Every structure is written in structure tokens, then in C-alpha cells.
User: Fold this.
Amino acid sequence: MLYVKKEEKVALEEISKKKEELIGVAQLKGLRSKETLQCSRELEHLLNVYKSRL
Assistant:
């Protein structure tokens, strides 16, 4: 069984939620909207933080 630290699990959940948010915003506002780009930057930040902790 794969062991996942609590912090890592929380980080992965945040990433998953942000991905879902990005998809929804992109569908509603379009791929080039300010809201979509901001959400994309936030997701990228979460991914970079997660990757740096590995």
C-alpha cells in the first residue's frame, strides 16, 4: 500500500480542486479571460510548490 503524508494529501486535494475550478472558469469565461489566466497561474503555483517538496 502506498503511504501518503497528510500534507501531501492536502496539497494534492488543493491541486485537484484548482484544476476543476480552472476547467469551469475556462468553459464559462473562455481560455483567454483574465479569470482563466489567473486561475491557471494559481494552479501552476500549487504544482510548483508541490514539486519542490518532493
About this structure: The chain has a mean pLDDT of 93. The chain has two helices and no strands. The helical segments are 6-29, 34-52. The CA atoms of residues 15 and 44 lie 9 Å apart.
